[in-house]
Amino acid sequence: MTVDAITAPAAAGIRTKVRVPLRFPDGWGTTADVFTFTGLVDGKEHLALGLGDYAGADVPLVRPHSECMTGDVFGSERCDCGPQLREAVERISEQGGYLLYLRQEGRGIGLYAKLDAYALQDEGLDTYEANRALGRGEDERDYTAAAQMLAVLGADRIDLLSNNPDKARQLAALGVTIAERVPTGVHMSTANVRYLRAKVEHTGHSLALPA
């Protein structure tokens, strides 16, 4: 997604707010107010989780987290998505803010295509080369719906919990003020080290990887 293609998002609305207790595999838990929306531009069922004192936070901490079934649900170590999700929920709960759970599997190419890309990575391509080899964009994610969600939640000035400079660029272009960019921790394993290095070297993610 290029910043030049971005236009101001249309208005959205809150459809439902429901309180949900959360419990992670390591036993840590909290409670979230889960918001659903109407009028999102892409028609997908994105969620916002209000965590901690989100309503009272002058500058809420926000993580736009793209859905990753393999990492978030099954604990795959080929990426760092599951640990980032766990870390984000705890850190946002402490500061107050929102986790935006965005239905953009595989950087927007979908679950099956992501697994096809995994097969190509097993043959030697990196995560971006594999997407291109499938005839897809390196990263097809669009954060217009995320900006809509933040607008309806009243969060037009945020601390952004993300290592990805493209998220910051897109959200800023969509009218969201980024008060501070806050990096996540480094969640490295033997299975994802090449993946993480590609994110740093190819798209400038702010990950402090060991030499």
3D architecture notes:
The chain has helices at residues 69-73, 81-95, 111-122, 127-133, 144-152, 165-173, 193-203; strands spanning 13-23, 29-38, 47-51, 61-66, 97-102, 157-161, 177-182. It has 211 residues and is of the alpha/beta class. It has one domain (3-104, 141-203): GTP cyclohydrolase II (Rossmann fold, 3-Layer(aba) Sandwich), CATH 3.40.50. The protein has a seven-stranded mixed sheet, sandwiched between helices. Strand 1 and strand 2 form a beta hairpin. Helix 3 (111-122) crosses helix 4. It is globular.
Count helical runs.
7
Radius of gyration: 17 Å
N/C terminus separation: 30 Å
Class in CATH?
Alpha Beta
Question: Can you tell me the residue ranges where pLDDT is under 50 for at least 5 consecutive residues?
Answer: none
Helical/strand content category: alpha/beta
Which architecture per CATH? 3-Layer(aba) Sandwich
Q: Going across the major beta sheet, what is the strand order? A: 1-2-3-5-4-6-7
List the main descriptive attributes of the protein structure presented here.
211 residues, alpha/beta, Rossmann fold, seven-stranded mixed beta sheet, 7 helices, globular
